[in-house]
Amino acid sequence: MNETGEPMGTGGVAALVAALPDPTVILDSQGLVLHANRAAFSLVDTLTPGQPLTHSLRSSALLEALTQTLSDGQSRRAAYETRGTTPRQFEAVVAAIAGGGPERATLLVQIRDLTREQQVERMRADFVANASHELRTPLASLTGFIDTLQGAARDDEQARTQFLDLMQAQAARMKRLIDDLLSLSRIEINEHLKPAAEVELAATVRQAADLLRPEAEKTGTPLHLDLATALPIMGAREELVQVFYNLIENALKYGASPRGIEIVARREGDQAVVSVTDHGPGIAAIHIPRLTERFYRVSVQDSRSRGGTGLGLAIVKHILNRHEARLAITSTVGQGTTCRVAFPAAE
Length: 347
What we know:
Layout: H1 10-19, E1 24-28, E2 33-36, H2 38-43, H3 53-56, H4 60-72, E3 76-82, E4 88-96, E5 105-113, H5 115-150, H6 157-189, E6 198-200, H7 201-219, E7 223-227, E8 232-234, H8 237-255, E9 261-268, E10 271-277, H9 300-305, H10 312-322, E11 326-332, E12 336-344
Parallel strand pairs: 7-9
Antiparallel strand pairs: 1-2, 1-5, 3-4, 4-5, 6-8, 9-10, 10-12, 11-12
Helix pairs in contact: 5-6, 6-10, 7-8, 8-10
């Protein structure tokens, strides 16, 4: 209704829809799109006025809700998921309304993005499951050392010094694990949101390499950088530094060699590509497809002895998903490993 009490015309409906903050679409009695606001067009880039909404949102649950609401006028909710690099979950609220003009608007559809809420719930469950499993071993070790120091080794100075060193190492391991779990959880919450800032890729790679130079010098492994300038991408700088820090750190941990590590960044067509290559023992092909899984390790004991948490490449994967980038890992046993990351270059 307008201010005179008469049915609102299509122009008034369009203005009202445009003012709503949530993605909103008005349909006619045939389910064709009459009006949609900017938020709806941003969310569903294939939305077309005059075409059925279900051509853009292919969901049996949504189609059923539209059909039933057209039939009985009752409001309904329909949950659906969109596929892509990062699946997203939505809820559409379908309500019957009365419009005006030659085309009577009969349905209002408001869409809510539930991705973040569901990720938070999943994150909580995963955090509890993963943390309880991975923290059990170092906690058991600490408990055993404490029991020994309170009992048989109470007055043994040499044993006390040895056990305290071991306890410190186990506590440091737990701290690294918790830090990585929290980092992974934060990244997963925002994984569906595309970065909106432009970042110079080569500069982020150089920053990560500079942070690891002391470690590289300690292992006698030189870092060879070949970074092209002018490699702009859309990205989150701190997250990208974390990606390349993790990749270079892995190369130092498991592929340290006097031959060094080659870090190359260059443009290839419409992509900006960074590769990190080591000359270590390499990885058997059977392990490569699972390297980005949480807590997957080629050798559990070797990884733990080097301070690994089994989460580094999982963090890399989720950050790259947000950036619509691709990670490819190739390796030859006895020759080394290459991690190649390809980003869509900014226009």
